[in-house]
Design a protein that fits this description.
Blueprint: E1 3-8, H1 13-24, E2 31-37, E3 43-49, H2 52-58, E4 68-74, E5 89-90, E6 96-101, H3 107-116, H4 126-141, H5 144-152, E7 159-165, E8 172-177, E9 182-185, E10 190-193, E11 205-208, E12 213-218, E13 221-226, E14 237-238, H6 254-260, H7 262-270, H8 290-294, E15 298-303, H9 305-322, E16 326-330, H10 331-334, E17 345-351, H11 357-368, E18 372-377, H12 383-387, E19 390-393, H13 406-426, H14 431-453, H15 455-465, E20 470-475, H16 479-494, E21 497-502, E22 519-524, H17 530-542, E23 546-552, E24 564-568, H18 576-594
Helix pairs in contact: 3-4, 4-5, 7-13, 7-14, 9-13, 9-16, 14-18, 15-18, 16-18
The structure holds fructose -6-phosphate (F6R).
């Protein structure tokens, strides 16, 4: 949510910042801007409503020559997206420019104080208040670092910031509290980024800023401190992925690339973690608290959005396979309902980005109340990954498409591994069952590949259904969350209204919506609920609804009932949510592209929601 880039070194800052902003655009894309200290040591800014590409097309490159600068791509919180509210924001004297990700919660109080001191404001943003507050302190302290420090000690809320000033033109000051920020340490240059994608093509050596820390960057190096002015030493870490992983590699969209990558990403999730001879699972990151997990009295899973859907699948898996009661909570609700945490409770936190503010708040609340916390996170080194007691990375690789796809299937895979680990230790599954599951897992990537290869069939169906205004998605058991996820994907990227329901719930209300214009996507595996699902299909057909069934390969019956059928390879029940989800991702993708929607950057959304 909002992307920040900064550069200080010997090269032309503008191009590096624009490239970084392009890569960070998935974090927000309603406006963008850059500020540079030019060769005359003046602070110059260009910012604009719209995409980074529009900024890049319109900026006068010659005017913006300089080797110190900051840039921002915005997801609006305070103030509508327009040129004035775009970042960088400046102080009243236009001497200080600042980019900010997060929310200054006490901005109104601070603004009133500053207005009483004669400060005038141009924008509706909370960020402008911070720039004037820095200006206010600079007037008495005559030192930029001190002025920023004083200002940060007065603000409540969250921030990742980078700030430059013509008062002290050879430095950048960066700080973080609640919004991610990292430094890429190159040779005679430092790049600041909200995440590694802005940095990776310059260096793999990074330093993650922690909450309450700030950093003063000059052309000669950097100094890390707390905002209370205590020195800090931090080891440099290495980014684990390569540039090509964050490029489109010939695909039309990142989302399409990420959907198609799933035969490999799923293997990356389980590789080295399961013994295929015995079915025994070992999750290195959880070893330190394995006994606590295995002996948990209750497991609470918390997450948001797609990750929450994965959590619902986790509930079915863990209860069935491990016989431990599981609750799944929306992270955004968890901390506001004074939840009961008892001794022996384990909280599993699921997050692709590892930065989602609601999920982080739920994690902190659970820790405060004494829960042992486990993270299933994709982004290495992210805040959630660092704050949980123990965790296991899902290893889906960088996910750039705003709508989550490969991270979802890897989250489900991680939950399967977690359930297998517990079940193996608790002996709630027999050795034979574990072996059979491991055997079936071996075939899973090939089955996912088969689904990916059938993408033209899904495209054909998408073309047939693309004009509908509403969709219903139905599934039972493990496939109910798959229905929810299918509906969410369609809503997010095609702006078609879609609802997911447990299939049997349809008759308790949603059936009223069904008419000849309503496609119903129904997940119909050949399992013990099959006859019931067929009855649900008949109920829809009786009301002239159109049925798209996701059915097993060996189902010879389904064509008699459904208008469209997508066949998926037969698999063990516990892997079915992964297999059944793939066609639904494609369906949403092809419907959205047929409707001309920008699937990688759906309106109003941003990857990594770092505000509550
Ligand atoms: C949907 C989507 C969101 C995220 C949610 C949680 O496609 O991407 O619903 O799943 O914002 O994000 P993470 O997993 O990063 O915590």
């Amino acid at each position: 949510m909002c992307g920040i880039v900064g550069y200080i070194g010997k090269k032309n800052a503008l191009q590096i910042i624009l490239d970084g902003l392009q890569r960070l655009e998935y974090r927000g894309y309603d406006s963008a801007g850059v500020s540079i200290i030019n060769d005359n040591k003046e602070l110059i800014t260009y910012k604009k409503k719209g995409k980074v590409s529009e900024l890049a097309e319109n900026i006068d490159i010659n005017l913006f020559a300089g080797s110190v600068g900051i840039g921002h791509t915005r997801w609006a919180t305070h103030g509508v997206p327009n040129d004035v509210n775009a970042h960088p924001q400046f102080d009243m004297d236009e001497k200080i420019a600042l980019v900010h990700n997060g929310i200054i919660e006490n901005y109104k109080t601070l603004k009133t104080m500053l207005q009483n001191e004669g400060y005038v404001f141009r924008s509706d943003t909370d960020t402008e208040v911070l720039t004037n507050l820095i200006n206010y302190h600079y007037k008495s302290k005559k030192d930029l670092e001190t002025a920023v420090r004083f200002a940060l000690n007065e603000v409540d809320g969250t921030y990742g910031i980078a700030c430059i000033s013509s008062f002290e033109p050879d430095k950048i000051i960066a700080a973080r509290k609640g919004s991610p920020l990292m430094l890429g340490i190159g040779i005679e240059e430092i790049i600041i980024g909200s995440d590694a994608s802005a940095i990776i093509n310059h260096t793999k050596n990074v330093i993650y800023l922690e909450d309450g820390e700030m950093c003063v960057l000059t052309k000669h190096g950097f100094q890390l401190k707390t905002i209370k002015d205590e020195d800090i030493f931090r080891e440099i870490e290495e980014i684990e992925f390569d540039l090509q992983e964050i490029e489109k590699s010939g695909y039309d969209h990142f989302m399409l690339k990420e959907i198609c990558e799933q035969p490999e990403t799923i293997q990356n999730t389980y590789r080295g973690r399961i013994n295929f001879e015995t079915g025994v699972v070992k999750l290195g990151g959880l070893e330190s608290i394995k006994d606590k997990i295995v002996n948990a009295k209750r497991i609470i899973i918390t997450a948001c959005g797609t990750s929450w859907h994965a959590g619902l699948i986790g509930e079915y898996l863990i209860e069935q396979m491990c016989r431990i009661p599981v609750e799944v909570d929306y992270a955004s609700e968890f901390r506001y309902r004074d939840p009961v945490i008892n001794e022996g409770d384990i909280m599993v936190v699921i997050s692709q980005s590892g930065e989602t503010a609601d999920t982080l708040a739920a994690l902190r609340e659970a820790k405060k109340k004494g829960a042992v916390t486990v993270g299933l996170v994709n982004v290495v080194g992210s805040t959630i990954a660092r704050e949980v007691d123990a965790g296991t990375y899902i290893h889906a690789g960088p996910e750039i498409g705003v709508a989550s796809s490969k991270a979802f299937t890897s989250q489900v895979m991680s939950l399967i591994l977690l359930a297998l680990m517990i079940a193996g230790e608790k002996k709630t599954l027999s050795d034979d069952e574990l072996k059979r599951i491991a055997n079936d897992l071996k075939t899973l990537p090939e089955k996912i590949k088969k689904c990916v290869e059938a993408k033209d069939d899904y495209k054909f169906i998408a073309d047939e259904l693309k004009s509908a205004s509403n969709f219903l998605y139905l599934g039972r058991g493990l496939n109910f969350p798959v229905a929810l996820e299918g509906a969410l994907k369609l809503k997010e990227i095609s702006y078609i209204h879609a609802e997911g329901y447990p299939a049997a719930e349809m008759k308790h209300g949603p059936i009223a919506l069904i008419d000849e214009n309503m496609p119903v996507v129904i997940i119909a595996p050949k399992d013990k609920t099959y006859d019931k699902i067929i009855s649900n299909i008949e109920e829809v057909k009786a009301r002239k609804g159109k049925i798209l069934a996701i059915a097993s390969e060996e189902d010879n019956n389904i064509n008699d009932y459904a208008d469209f059928v997508i066949r998926v390879p037969k698999t063990f029940n516990l892997f079915a949510p992964i297999i059944n989800n793939i066609p639904l991702q494609f369906l949403a993708y092809y419907i959205a592209t047929a409707r001309g929607c920008n699937v990688d950057q759906p309106r109003n959304l941003a990857k990594s929601v770092t505000v509550e």
